[in-house]
Amino acid sequence: MAQDFSELTKLFNQLSMGSGLAGLGGGLFNIFGKQKSPYDAASKIYGQIPGATEKYLSPYMTAGQSALGDLMGQYGQLTGSTGDVYNKLAGGYQQSPGFQSALKQALGAAGNQAAAGGMTGTPQAQLQSADVAGTLAQKDFGDYMSRMMGLYGTGLQGMGDVSKMGYGASTNYADMLENIMAQQGGMAGMSQALQNQQRSGGVSQALQGLMSLLGGAGLFGGFTNLFK
C-alpha cells in the first residue's frame, strides 16, 4: 500500500511541478515579456494624420500669413502717414477719355454766354472760362480718386478675407493636433494601466507557480513518509 501511495505521490508531484513551471513561466513572461501595446499601433496611425492633412491646409495657412503681413503694412500706412497712400493713388491720375469733350462743350457754352452779354475777350469772360475748366478738372480727378479708393478698399477687404481664411485653416489644424495629442495621451495612459495590470497578474501567477513547484518538490514527499 505504501508503494501505491508512493506512486500516487510521485504523480501528484509531477503534475504539481508541471503546473508550477507553467505558471511560473507564464507569470515571468507577463512581468518581463514585451507585449504589443494598443498605443503603439494607434500612435503610428495618429502620427500620419498631421502630415496627410497639412498638405491640404498649408496653402491656405501660408496665404493667410502673407495676406496678414500685407494687410498690416497697408493699415500701418493709413494710420501712420495717410499722405503716402493718397499720393500713390493720385500719382496715377490721367484725364478720363470724356474729359476733353466735356471741357470743350462747357467752354463753348461759357463763350456763347459771354458773347451774348457782350463780354467776349474780357477778363471776366476769361475768369469764367478758367473756372469752368477748373471745376471740370476737379470733378474728373475726384471721380478718379473715388474709383481708386474703391479699388483700394476692395483690395484691403480681399486681403482681410484671405487672412481670415488662413486663420480658419490654422485653427482647424491646431485643433486637430490638440485632439490627436489628447487621444494619444488617453491611449498612453490606458496602455500603461493595462501593462500594470498585466504585470500585477504576472506577479500573482508567478508566485502561484512557485508555490506549486515547492509543493511538488517536497509536500507530497513528506506525506508518503507516513505510510512507510
The level of helicity is: over 70%
Low-pLDDT segments, ≥5 res: 1-5, 11-15, 219-228
Shape: rod-shaped
- Count of extended strands: 0
- Please, how many helices? 5
**H and E string:** HHHHH
Mean pLDDT comes to: 74
Strand content: under 5%
- How would you classify the helix and strand content by structural class? mainly alpha
Task: Tell me the count of domains.
Answer: 1
Distance between the termini: 9 Å
Main sheet: strands, sense, barrel: none
- Rg, rounded, reads 47 Å
What this model shows, in words?
This protein is mainly α and 228 residues long. The protein has one domain (2-227). It has helices at residues 2-32, 38-80, 82-90, 99-116, 123-224. α1 runs antiparallel to α5 (123-224). The longest helix is centred in the last third of the chain and has 102 residues, at 123-224.
Helix/strand layout:
Blueprint: H1 2-32, H2 38-80, H3 82-90, H4 99-116, H5 123-224
Write a compact overview of the structure shown.
This protein is mainly α. The chain has five helices and no strands.
List keywords for this structure.
single chain, 228 residues, mainly alpha, 5 helices, 0% strand, rod-shaped, disordered N terminus, disordered C terminus
